[in-house]
Every structure is written in C-alpha cells, then in structure tokens.
Design goal:
heterodimer, A: mainly alpha, B: 11 helices, globular
C-alpha cells in the first residue's frame, strides 16, 4: 500500500474526513482571517471608494474631474511612464544577473544571490535615504564627480525624475531578478548543449532556447515590478520633487493636506483599477503559491 | 580571443549591476560612523556619537519601542490567524476556496497607499490613529498573507500519512495537529512569523498615515527626519534597521538551507 498524500485526498477505504477538515471546522479556522480582512481591509477600502461616488451626494464629478484637469491626467500619465521606464530598466539590468545566478557554479552563485537578497531585505525607507545621501548637492556622487574633474560645480541630481527612476529601479530590481532566476534555474542545461551540438552559436542558442523558455519568469517579474511601481509612495515622496509627482503622492496630498476625501477616493479607485486590470490580464503568472514570495 | 573578451564584458556588466544593488545598503554604514554632521564620503573620523545620540534620544527610543511592541503583537496575531487559515485553505473542505485564496493575497496586490489612506479614513474618527491596537490590526492584515503563503507551502510538503497514523492510533484531531502536524510544519510557521515581524517593523506607508502625534513608529519618525532634519543619526538608525532585517532574514535562509530546501526564489 503506498497511498501518496494528495491535496484532493484519495478516496479508497479510508474516510475522506481523516484527510480533509470538514466544512464547519474549516470555516471556523478561516473565520479570524476573514474577520481581519473584512474589518481591516475590505471595509476601509470600500468606504473610501463609496465616498468617492456617494459623498456628499451620488455623483461621478470626482471621476470627471480627473479626466478634465490636465494636472491629474499628467500625473496619471507620468505614473505609467515612470513605471514603464523602471520596469524596462529592471528587466534590462536584471535579466543578465538572473541568468548568471542560475548558471554560474557554486560560490559565485551564492555571492550573486547575496547581492540580490541583501537589498531586498533592507528597508525601502533606508534605501531611499541612502539615495538622498548619494545624490544630494554635496552628496557622494557629486563629490566624486568634482574630485575626478568631470564637473566643476555640483549637479542637481536629487528631486529629479532621474533620481526617482534610479532609486525605484534599485528598490524593485530584486523583484525582477528572483522570478526570472526561479524559471531559468529549471531550464535543463542539456537543451542549450543540444542546441550548441547542432551547430548553434552561443548567441543563437540563447535566443532560440533559453530566452523563450524563460518568458514565464520574465512575465511574472515584469508584472510584479510594474504593479509595485504604480503604487510606490515612499521613494518618490522622498527623492522626487514637485515635477515628479506620482499617483500615490497625489493621493497622499489630497488626504493629508487638502482633506478632500471623495477626490482621494476617486484617485485611489483609478490606481487600483489599473493595478487590478494588470493582475486579471496576467492572472496566471501570479497563481497562488507560485513564485509570489515577496520579501 | 573574442569569447574571453565577451565573457569579461558580461562579468563586468553583472558586477556593475550588483554594485548598483548593494550601494544604498552599504553606504549608510560609513555615514553612520563619520564625525562630520554633513554628508561626507569617505568619512574622516570614526565615531559612535550618532548611535549614542539615537539611543539617548527619548523620541527615537519611544518610536523604536512602539514599533517593537507593534511588531511583536503583529507577529503573534498574524502567525496564529494565518496558520489556522492556511490549514483550512490547504486541507479543508471549503466552499469558494479559490475566491478566499485570492482575497487572502489582496493586501499584497492592492497598492499600500490605497490601504493607508483607507485606514486613516476609518481610524481617525474612532481615535485609532497612533494607537497600538490600530497598528496591530493594520499590520496584521498586511502581514497575514506572508504567513498563509509560507505555512501553505509547508503543509503541502507535509506527509499526511503521519497524521493518519496518529489518528489511527487513537489521537484526536487536535492532538494529531499539535503533536504531529505542527512540529513538522514548524520551519514554515517560523519563516512566516519572521516575515510578519519584518512586514510590520519595516512598514512605512501605512505607518505614515495612521501614526499620531504621540503614537509614532520608527519608520514614521525616520520619514519625518529625512524630510526636515537630515542628520547622521538617521544613518545610525538605518544601520540598526538594516542589521535587524539582515540577521532575521539570514536566519530563515540558513534554516532553509539546513532543512534541505536550499533554493531561493
């Protein structure tokens, strides 16, 4: 007898109830979670969106305002633009690292993994602060530029779009590298070797074997990075300036400074709708228990 | 040789990306021990006065302890709630299981700014901003998906025959769970607990919105000081935060390597 345990619970002579928890007990076990998520998540978020339409009276004026005022459309456009550039840069910089991490032997792979994981485990706030120290007028980068004679006067690096993009790319890079790595790692070496034996050059073997097989990892990495960039608050708020205002910062301003809850709710609804649209379109890459382990 | 030149260039490019990745984490350490009150690299003297300033400042200490208390309470509540839910989601006969799984992951997908603003809207009239319980509710909600994910993974690897054997030998369901299932999934539960602790301790966006004038977390205090009062004390605080994260996460990683699941990602 070698009954392998399976999630469905194989039937046979044993009662299913031993392999599965009954519906009543199961409901009892999930109820604290449901209570927490309804009270701490669904109700507040629902109330925010409800307010965007029904406070003080039923109207879509808040949504119409987003479409009418050029500033809001500009912020929306800029958010997508920055998210797109950050995702593209992360893919460009991250893919070779993921590939190396999967292919390089022994110690070197551990070293690369450490370089990827250490920043992932460092608080986003700390890293944003580090970028301020690097990019300030008298910061590390400017001092280095002046010392090497590349520039005479310090450059304005902080509070620019470039600063936001550099910092966000650095923060999100591990989220691109890890999903690609976990897919590339499982591509058998034999396939590449076979391609080489059949006469493909290393470039051709990469383009025709490794690259197509790594696409699921690329899609997952791109999706996670893009979604996280859309909602980024801390980094743009600290290293960006008024000319780099993004959706999250705008939503924050509407609530803390202008106290315009209904409008903040409308902006939040637009941001969430964009995020959910992406998730639904690419749902399969975010399947439960599969590669969605964020640090 | 074309090939070795290409290999050298590839290694150089990867080295540069790794440098870019590590630089922000590493730069705060020399800054925290430099004598100058301004940003200076490389730092001239060596001093621990910024650490002293941090540890002797009542505001910083209050914020730190507030964060630690919240993180400990969040770890306990998220670990218990998440573990129970994972058992039901993996093993239970539940109607609408898939919807429930998606719902569990929702706090990871919804942008934190949306959650932060929504919580502020609900907490402010209830007087829950800046309150310990408000934070524990908010952070438990944000941390619980990590626990559900890690414990679910552990449950799926667990050999159910062991539990069946215990039941056949006369154990009750509860006894079998406590004495057979739980010890076997302990690494997953422990990893979930560490994730929960860090999810709370490092969390900044929600903390920014639901902090009060009195009840301030360490991340909220840091955010304020970075914005208005940029001193090397922040570098010292940053280094402490980084060390806490690195030590906790390395412990998980080492434990995982030992238990034979030494794969990342």
């Amino acid at each position: 007898m070698h009954a392998k345990p399976s999630a469905e619970g194989s039937l046979g002579s044993r009662p299913t109830s031993a392999r599965e928890y009954g519906p009543v007990l199961s409901l009892l076990l999930v109820s604290p979670l449901v209570l927490l998520l309804v009270g701490g998540f669904l109700y507040p978020v629902g109330k925010l969106f409800w307010g965007s339409i029904f406070v003080p009276e039923a109207t879509f004026a808040n949504y119409a305002r987003i479409l009418q005022e050029p500033l809001f459309l500009l912020v929306l456009w800029r958010t997508f633009e920055i998210a797109f550039v950050v995702t593209a840069l992360a893919l460009l910089l991250g893919y070779p690292v993921a590939l190396a991490m999967a292919r390089v032997p022994g110690r070197a792979a551990i070293l690369i993994a450490a370089c990827v994981l250490i920043p992932l485990w460092t608080s986003v706030l700390v890293r944003s602060y580090a970028w301020i120290m690097l990019l300030q007028r008298n910061g590390v980068v400017n001092n280095a530029l002046i010392e090497t004679g590349l520039t005479e006067t310090p450059l304005r690096l902080l509070y620019t779009q470039g600063a936001v993009i550099a910092a966000m790319t650095q923060v999100l890079l591990p989220f691109m590298i890890l999903p690609i790595y976990s897919v590339v790692r499982n591509i058998p070496d034999d396939l590449v070797r076979a391609a080489r034996n059949l006469g493909a050059g290393s470039l051709q073997a990469f383009v025709r074997v490794t690259l197509p097989l790594s696409l699921p990892g690329v899609t997952a990495g791109v999706l996670i990075t893009f979604i996280l960039s859309l909602g980024f608050y801390i980094t743009p708020a600290l290293v960006g300036g008024p000319s780099t205002l993004m959706m999250a910062t705008l939503i924050g301003q509407q609530t803390t400074e202008l106290l315009d809850w209904p409008f903040a709710g409308a902006l939040a609804a637009v941001l969430l709708a964009a995020t959910l649209f992406l998730v639904v379109v690419f749902r399969r890459t975010l399947a439960f228990n599969k590669g969605f382990k964020l640090g | 040789m074309v090939n070795s030149a290409a290999a050298f260039l590839a290694a150089l490019a990867i080295g540069l990306v790794l440098f870019f990745l590590l630089l922000p984490t590493l730069i705060v350490i020399p800054m925290s021990v430099g004598t100058s009150p301004y940003i200076e690299f490389p730092p001239r003297g060596l001093t621990f006065k910024w650490y002293e300033a941090y540890f002797s400042d009542p505001d910083w200490m209050a914020a730190t302890w507030f964060s630690v208390r919240i993180a400990v309470a969040t770890t306990m509540s998220a670990t218990v709630i998440g573990t129970l839910a994972a058992v039901a989601l993996v093993r239970g006969r539940l109607p609408g299981k898939e919807i429930l799984q998606a719902f569990t992951l929702a706090p990871l997908i919804v942008p934190h700014i949306v959650i932060a603003v929504a919580l502020y809207l609900v907490f402010a009239p209830l007087g829950l901003t800046g309150s310990f319980y408000g934070f524990v509710i908010a952070h438990s909600m944000l941390a619980v998906p990590y626990v559900v994910i890690t414990v679910s993974a552990a449950l799926q690897r667990f050999d159910q025959n062991l539990e069946l054997a215990a039941l056949n030998c006369g154990a009750t369901r509860l006894q079998a769970f406590l004495h057979v299932v739980l010890p076997n999934i302990r690494p997953g539960v422990a990893a979930g607990a560490v994730f929960a602790f860090l999810a709370s301790f490092d969390e900044a966006t929600v903390a920014f919105f639901i902090s009060g004038i009195e009840g301030k977390t360490i991340t909220r205090k840091m955010f304020e000081d970075i914005d208005f009062n940029l001193t090397p004390v922040i570098a010292a605080v940053s280094t402490v935060l980084t060390l806490v994260s690195l030590v906790l996460m390395s412990t998980i990683e080492i434990a995982r390597q030992r238990s034979g699941n030494g794969r990342l990602g």
